From TrEMBL:
The gene is glcB. It comes from Roseobacter fucihabitans. This is Malate synthase G. Its main location: cytoplasm. Its EC number is 2.3.3.9. Coiled coil: none annotated. Glyoxylate binds at residues 332, 422, 447-450. The modification Cysteine sulfenic acid (-SOH) is found at residue 608.
Length: 715
């Protein structure tokens, strides 16, 4: 790395200085001297509190470890355990009732339930795809996936499958937009008369669901409808291959799909130094300015992708109606743990990366705030903050963004905060976490993946955990998911903020997603994560079937409240009568997931991968899934369910499997037969040293090994 440049009381990588001064700052109205002076104070003054919070994490974990060790030979005493957690400050007293007062929240967050995408910000093409996934073709979603029960055929267009797609889409239209005395399946003509939509001379049962159209009212080109806050666009074109065979000329049904999208600087990326961070920040800058583009080859042709424009229509009574063409974008900063060599503080220590992300991503968002019709129409910046442990850490984040607002000249609480409920100390103190940022909270969610990793690490000394598939069948997970919704509603999030649910991790299994993921809106969650734009379009069907605000109102009126005591039920294996084959399969399945993810993370800098499991089902792997698998093996190793020799045999065996799965990748470096590469060593570190990693996180090992490889390649 080039010699760092002194800026006030911090030292900064030259490339990052150039990016900030030549790209990020111009157009914001913030002078370089103001920025660097404020950034320097933030890094040096807030860094000490950040460090103290991490030390408190370690101190609490040490006390919990010791308690479990001292009580290991006795039956678990739940009451004594909870009393102990209160005594050490892990469980804090719950204060009086309150409601958040977050202001200037965009409709996509507060009033429009729908799917939410999470995408690595370092990949411009993926980021653009996610932003443009506000609208998606239902025809394509049905035809190109297994959503109707079978995989799409290879080769050219299958007219029989296409006919089934059209019929299935008509079923959806009848459910969401029923017509008086007839069906969309029989419709031959859609037209506008005296401000009303008529289908074969019949109106909609709920005529107010007609929002607008384009073209001539007697033969519209597009008709837009609205149900449960989500829009649907009917596209008519009798010259189109589909429309030409349709009796009404209906060529496509476009669904408003990914209402919001999280541009991720955290778990789905591999950013370990200044150069990596600049790629992330450059793409965020392009999104906030609205000029991000990416060119690539597809089907033998050069394609350039850019942000989609808004959509305009003629209203029922005339006049212009505009609908957003892009998802509302949030940015996920990193948590409080990691440091980055791109900046050093006055003591020469690497800066806490969370402070770095907070300052620079907020600065970049000024470009959006200074233009019309951009990302936020209410003048807000949306930051998702992960991996916070309890109310003190949320309060620290709240103060940090407050200081940044002062430095950048922004109104107080411009930055809205998303609290990820994925660490157990946050789950059991969720109400107080929300209170700590009650004027800034715009988002809470459950994340089963990281939450399970933290569950295992927090209770590492309590005993051996169940197999992974059985952990999520235990009582704690249902209580955790319910409590998140219950407390969110108690704290007034309905109609003001998002209550979210986690990722569908199997992007190729859309039929299963359609069957199962409807449980998320049924639970009262007004957004849930999906792995692709197509999945967003299909998941949008659930929000047409379920009125989330009705569900929330019933839950709130019923006064349901999941209990913290149930959340604290540790999912240990009560009967450890596993066969050798069961233990081997569990360890190998974990090892395959770890290796398939880590080898691309370390060797290629890919932070999110689709990794086939033992049954060749492609699973979306990121650091959260890696954390579960590594902590699970570490737990079994620590409690003697398996030994180190068995673990290493599984790692070597699965390395060969992963090598085979990546044989067609020209950039892939095989791990076998030497098993001495940096990536393989990183995967082994995650397992063999997993018990001693802070909170069981994978970042320290992955960052160190990635930097080692980059250093070796540079020398």
């Amino acid at each position: 790395m080039a010699e760092l440049i002194q800026k006030n009381d911090i030292q900064v990588a030259p490339s990052l200085v150039r990016f900030i001064e030549e790209a990020a700052l111009p157009g914001t109205g913030v002078a370089p001297m103001t920025f660097w002076a404020g950034f320097s104070e933030l890094v040096n003054e807030e860094g000490s509190e950040n460090r103290a919070l991490l030390e408190k994490r370690d101190a609490i974990q040490s006390k919990i470890d010791l308690w479990h060790i001292e009580h290991r030979d006795s039956p678990h005493d739940h009451e004594a355990y909870c009393a102990f957690l209160r005594e050490i400050g892990y469980l804090v007293p719950e204060g009086p009732a309150f409601e958040i007062d977050t202001a200037n929240v965009d409709d996509e967050i507060a009033r429009v339930p729908g799917p939410q995408l999470v995408v690595p910000i370092t990949n411009a093409r993926y980021a653009l795809n996610a932003a443009n996934a506000r609208w998606g073709s239902l025809y394509d979603g049905f035809y190109g996936t297994d959503a109707m029960g079978s995989a799409p055929p290879k080769g050219g267009y299958d007219q029989g499958r296409g006919a089934r797609v059209v019929a299935r889409a008509r079923v959806f239209l009848d459910e969401a937009f029923p017509i008086v005395k007839t069906s969309h399946a029989d419709a031959r003509r859609y037209y506008i008369h005296n401000g009303a939509l008529l289908i074969d001379d019949q109106p909609l049962i709920a005529p107010e669901k007609f929002i607008g159209y384009t073209g001539h009212p007697k033969a519209p080109e597009r008709i837009v409808l609205r149900n449960n806050g989500l829009h649907v666009e009917l596209v008519f074109d009798r010259t189109h291959p589909i429309g030409s065979r349709d009796q009404a000329g209906l060529a496509d049904v476009q669904l408003e799909s990914a209402v919001s999208a999280i541009m991720d600087c955290e778990d789905s990326v591999a950013c370990v130094d200044a150069e990596d961070k600049i790629v992330a920040y450059e793409n965020w800058l392009g999104l906030m300015r609205g000029d991000l583009q990416d060119s690539f080859e597809k089907g033998g042709a050069q394609v350039t992708r850019a942000l989609n424009p808004d959509r305009t229509y003629i209203g029922p009574e005339g006049g212009k109606i505009t609908l957003k063409g892009r998802a509302l974008m949030l940015v996920r900063n990193v948590g409080h743990l990691m440091r980055n060599p791109a900046i050093r503080d006055r003591n020469g220590d690497e800066v806490f990366e969370g402070l770095m992300d907070a300052m620079i991503t907020t600065l970049i968002a000024l470009h959006d705030l200074k233009r019309d019709g951009g990302n936020s129409l209410t003048g807000s910046v949306y930051v998702v903050k992960p991996k916070m442990h309890g109310p003190e850490e949320v309060a620290f984040a709240d103060r940090t963004y407050g200081r940044i607002e002062e430095i950048l000249g922004l109104p107080k609480n411009t930055v809205k905060l998303g609290i990820m409920d994925e660490e157990r100390r946050t789950s059991v103190n969720l109400k107080e976490c929300i209170r700590a940022a009650k004027s800034r909270v715009a988002f809470i969610n459950t994340g089963f993946l990281d939450r399970t990793g933290d569950e295992i690490h927090t209770s590492m000394e309590a005993g051996a955990f169940s197999r992974k598939d059985f952990i999520k069948r235990k009582t704690w997970i249902g209580a955790y998911e319910n409590q998140n919704v219950d407390i969110g509603l108690e704290c007034g999030l309905s109609g003001r903020a998002q209550i979210g649910k986690g990722m569908w991790a199997m992007p190729d299994l859309m039929a299963a997603m359609l069957e199962q993921k409807i449980e998320h809106p049924k639970s009262g969650a007004n957004c849930a994560w999906v792995p692709s734009p197509t999945a967003a379009t299909l998941h949008a069907l659930h929000y047409h079937r379920v009125n989330v605000f009705d569900v929330q109102a019933k839950l709130k009126a019923g006064g349901r409240r999941a209990y913290v005591d149930t959340v604290l039920n540790i999912p240990l294996a009560e009967y450890q009568k596993w066969t050798d084959a069961q233990k081997q399969r569990e360890v190998e399945n974990n090892a395959q997931g770890i290796l398939g993810y880590v080898v691309r993370w370390v060797d290629q800098g890919v932070g999110c991968s689709k990794v086939p499991d033992m049954n060749d089902v492609g699973l979306m792997e990121d650091r959260a899934t890696c954390r579960i698998s590594a902590q699970h093996i570490a737990n079994w190793l620590h409690h003697g369910v398996v030994d180190a020799q068995q673990v290493m045999q599984a790692m070597r065996k699965m390395a060969q499997v992963v090598d085979g799965q990546n044989a067609d990748d020209p950039l892939y470096q095989p791990m076998a037969p030497g098993y001495d590469g940096i990536a393989f060593q990183a995967a082994c570190d995650l397992v063999l040293k997993g018990r001693t990693q802070p909170s069981g996180y994978t970042e320290p090992v992955l960052h160190a090994r990635r930097l080692e490889l980059k250093g070796a390649n540079a020398s």
